[in-house]
TrEMBL record:
This is Outer membrane protein TolC. Its main location: membrane. Residues 1-22 form the signal peptide. It is found in: Cell outer membrane. It comes from Chitinophaga niabensis.
Amino acid sequence: MNPKASINILLICLTACTPAAAQSGELSLADCFRIARHKNLAVEQVRRSLQARQYQLKAEQSTYFPKVDLLAGYNYLSQPLEVNLQQVKNGIVEGSSQQSVSTANSVYQQITGNPLPQPVQDGIYNTTKGIINTVYPNYNPALSKQQYFTAALGLRQPIYLGGKLATARDIARAEYESGIVNVELVEKQMDFLLAAAYIRILYFNAVLLSQERIVASMERNERFAISLVNNEIIPPYQRNWATVALTFARSRHENMALEKINAMVELKRLMQLPQDTLLTITDTLHYKQLEAILPPEGFYKGNPTYKAVASKTALAESTVKASRSLSLPNIFGIASLNLYQRDLPITTPPWLVGVEMQWNLFSGFSHQKKVKATKLWVDEAKIAADNTQALLEAGAAVVRNKVTVLQRDMQSLSQARAQAQLTTAQVQERLANQLSSVKDVNDALLMEEEIGKAYYTALFGYLLAAAEYYNILGTPQQITTLLQ
């Protein structure tokens, strides 16, 4: 299927889930959140990382099972194994000769009760020695061929590893839980960026509508000025003032429209949509009071940023256990089953079982230093968690004050905007009665435009501060309650 067609189908499905969106085709912020959950690459990246950590945890949970290996080997020797008879020749000749003398002496003594005379013993010794020297091989016989092949099954079962396997599982579990928090963190950051981009588009929509009204008023003012010039009521230069003011107003409107296009580009990038995707967002900014400015007690514990830092504490504590287990012995049960052997110089039993132990008695004090290092990592993680808590609490206080300041600014700017609109209407009425000039109308319209833009800028900052407040609480999607 065409990727663009898939995206359009996704947008249709998402907008159909919301009654208002289904009627107007308007893309809401909640729709943006859902699209980003399915399309954003950063979110998909941390999800893949979470899956990898999950498989790693399952792998560590199965490490206590025995390991069965197929062992096979082919060996080719530069020369066959040999018995070095020449090296032991003297010992064999001497030993055999002495043994012959001892045997003859023992038999003679049993018969006669007396030992053999010494000359006879010497004769037996020399005769035996001569015979053995004569028949003793003058070469080293081979014990095997030059090559041999063996195959066997080997089993290795951990019995006691000083807690190393349990610690490895704890580390894998801590990594997995950290991966879950990472997904929450990336999703939260993405939600905040989407909210900021969406609010920015609503700001441009509001300002564009205000500027359109101003441009329409200036066009009427220019037409009225032209009629007055044609009737020789006012000089032409006053009409020129109206034309110049209208030209700059149109330019400001066009520039604001281009800034909205750039904001739409950023919104599509966050949702991982092609830039030629058609999105409809026509809503504007509206003031809605933030219900509760004071954050609840212990709010930071639900913030993924804090949870991401706090998860490192559990991981650091597991590394302490891992470092301590290095000083403990490892005990394995072993077994072997011979499957095949060919041309082996010795005959091995068909199977064997046993127990082996490995215990590092001295490592240059590296194990003790690793334990100290991991304990310091635990302290570091706890300090980082406390610091993150302090930053979040301070951030909540700053945002609370910022919201209060912007609410006051909007109250004063709202009154100023109403007065500016009233003043413009009065000046236009006076112009109709020829009691004011065309330039007076232009000045009033410019003042109305600037005050209106300042009001929407303050409202934009207020909603951004509210989005930041909900982001600190760990619920950035809650900003939708102020945009409905």
